[in-house]
Specification:
single chain, about 425 residues, mainly alpha, Rossmann fold, four-stranded parallel β-sheet, about 55% helix
Length: about 425
């Protein structure tokens, strides 16, 4: 396993940021304050708003901040990111509550039979969502909407242009500071993205686990009741569609690997959801997700972190699969559809026809042409090319992954990609 200091992998912008921040600290200038009191006060100051509405998010925020301070060994850039992300979510909660207070009818909007893509990280969920989103009949979460979901009361056009520009700049910074992650999972302000971005605003998302070494938060996260976070997520979707003037009956296409862990909560939130389960060889998905998460976490600390990534994400993959299998026993068969990664590779049109039949929609020639064009653009731009990783870099082996994930492979008859080791 690679145990080199994380500084070895920092790009120049991260190195310069840490150097400048440490120089400021040496001069006695204030260290980045990650206390709950300071962050809540700053969010209120920046927005001019006082009321968060339901404060059910606070316990999750406290667990997260405590873990970040006591366990994460953050460098200055890591502390900056933790503060910026937290403030961004708190500001959006304040703005969202102002909208809900002014327009309580927003929460009464219907979300009709959303199609939700659920599967392990790196199992083709992003490709499937973005292909479906090429069909203009679907409503999907744009990245900028996920980062800044709340209209800003009193701003021109509710701050839509400012919110979009802030998201664009955030993604520019992501590309500079996390070049490896941007290669593995490219993002654009207007592309479809998963509702993990909305769960982030309740501090109840797997996202933090890929940013910091926070084992106590992970233990809490596994068994936390996420009902409130999912309710907030649904209200944010309603807020986004309301502020965009969308028809209430437009179908959403959602996706988030976290739903494997919280499938029961997802179905309580969207009782008429149609859930598409994706499957791929665990020997591919487990290594790939560890590699992706490391490419974020390595920038936030100077300490070696591959071992911690392995401990959390190998366990996450197993726990999510086991809980998903158990929860699926309680869901009507008519609300479930399985799609294997190789099905999409072999004949994506046939796979899409199955999905559209399952969703009760026609797979039109226009939808097929739009998806074909999306695939051509993606291949031409090589958006997902060049991801290289090895399980051994994280202190594990194919045999260990196979042993821990064999139950999942056998349950859904998932083939090996290439030759078995």
């Amino acid at each position: 396993m690679d145990t080199k200091p994380s500084t070895r992998y920092h790009p120049l912008p991260v190195k310069l940021f840490n150097l400048a921040a440490r120089a400021r600290n040496a001069l006695g200038l204030a260290r980045i304050d990650l206390s709950e009191q300071a962050l809540l006060a700053e969010a209120r100051k920046q927005t001019g708003l006082e009321r968060f509405g339901d404060e059910g998010f606070l316990p999750a925020l406290r667990v997260l901040l405590d873990a970040v301070e006591s366990e994460a060994s953050l460098n200055p850039f890591g502390r900056y990111i933790a503060r910026a992300r937290t403030l961004g979510s708190l500001r959006n909660r304040l703005w969202a509550n102002a909208c809900f207070e002014a327009h309580p009818e927003i929460r009464q909007r219907k979300i009709v039979a959303p199609v939700v893509i659920v599967g392990p990280h790196r199992s083709g969920t992003t490709r499937l969502q973005r292909m479906l989103a090429a069909d203009a009949r679907w409503r999907y979460l744009k990245t900028w909407e996920g980062l800044n979901p709340a209209p800003r009361m009193g701003w021109p056009e509710a701050g839509r242009a400012a919110r979009h520009e802030e998201a664009r700049k955030t993604l520019e910074m992501r590309h500079r500071m996390y070049p490896g992650a941007s290669m593995v999972h490219p993002m654009d302000a207007d592309w479809p993205e998963e509702e993990m971005l909305l769960l982030n605003h309740s501090f109840c998302s797997f996202s933090a686990l890929g940013l910091y070494n926070i084992p106590s938060y992970y233990r809490w996260f596994l068994d936390a009741d996420k009902t409130g976070a999912y309710r907030d997520m649904a209200d944010q979707l309603r807020l986004i569609s309301w502020s965009s003037g969308d028809p209430e009956d437009q179908r959403w296409i959602l996706k988030n690997p976290q739903h494997m862990l919280d499938l029961g909560t997802l179905l309580k939130t969207f009782p008429d959801a149609r859930v598409v389960f994706t499957h791929r060889d665990p020997l591919k998905t487990v290594g790939s997700v560890m590699s992706l998460m490391w490419r974020f976490a390595v920038q936030h600390t100077d300490m070696p972190c591959r071992g911690q990534i392995r401990e959390v994400w190998l366990d996450f993959c197993e726990q999510a699969a086991r809980r998903c299998i158990e929860a699926r026993e309680t869901i009507p068969a008519a609300q479930q559809l399985d799609v294997h990664y190789e099905d999409m590779n072999r004949d994506w049109r046939a796979a899409m026809r199955r999905i559209y039949d399952f969703a009760g929609m026609e797979f039109t020639a226009g939808a097929e042409d739009a998806m074909d064009a999306w695939l051509a653009d993606s291949e031409r731009e090589a958006r997902h090319a060049g991801h290289r990783y090895a399980l051994e870099e994280f202190g594990t082996t194919r045999d260990e992954v196979e042993a821990r994930m064999k139950f999942y492979r056998e349950r859904y008859a998932i083939p090996y990609e290439g030759k078995k080791a």
